[in-house]
Amino acid sequence: NARKYRERDEALLRAVRPHPALRLLEVGSARGDTAFFFAPLVARVTGIDASGTAVAAARAAAGARGLPNVAFEEADARDLSAFPDGSFDAVLLADFVEHVLDDVLRPCLAEARRVLSPRGALAIYTPNRDHWAERIKAAVPGLQQEDHIAVRPSDEVVRLVTAAGFAVEELFFSASPYPLLGALDRRLPGARPCRFRTVLRALRPV
Known about the structure:
Blueprint: H1 2-16, E1 23-27, H2 33-38, E2 44-49, H3 52-65, E3 70-74, E4 88-94, H4 102-115, E5 116-127, H5 132-139, H6 154-163, E6 167-174, H7 181-187, E7 197-203
Parallel strand pairs: 1-2, 1-4, 2-3, 4-5
Antiparallel strand pairs: 5-7, 6-7
């Protein structure tokens, strides 16, 4: 769905706010598509993923694209010890939060806070359990994606982020790409069932 990915890109840009000097870490970088999207807009992108196969594929794709400012490393989101304190200006969790339980997400957020520079930004893009589509998926066996093991309501995402010591700067929601019903989301953006994706930008305090 072209509209879905266009609006995803717009949401990520708003949450990350890239600039030419930005050092960006993407957690759960998979094949590298999001890292490649940001590469022309920032100084450096580092992607980490727990899958060695994904990292190898992303490295090969980066080489084929000729992107010298992109690197990929195999790492556990709970342990970013390969990176010193304050190594990044932004940490991005895009389509990652829904794949991990709290025993992974909590230490991941703590590590993200550590590797961020003062006033560095945490950006999150994740499905919202409050949305009508996610409610239907949760209620009907077989509809939910098997690897979406922790689709959280937006309030829970905010709670976890603030508990990790971040200050939420902006919280907004994207509309679903589905015909007709997506139009309802756009008409009623304040209604909880019409908030398709939770998009959050939070800052590490000085």
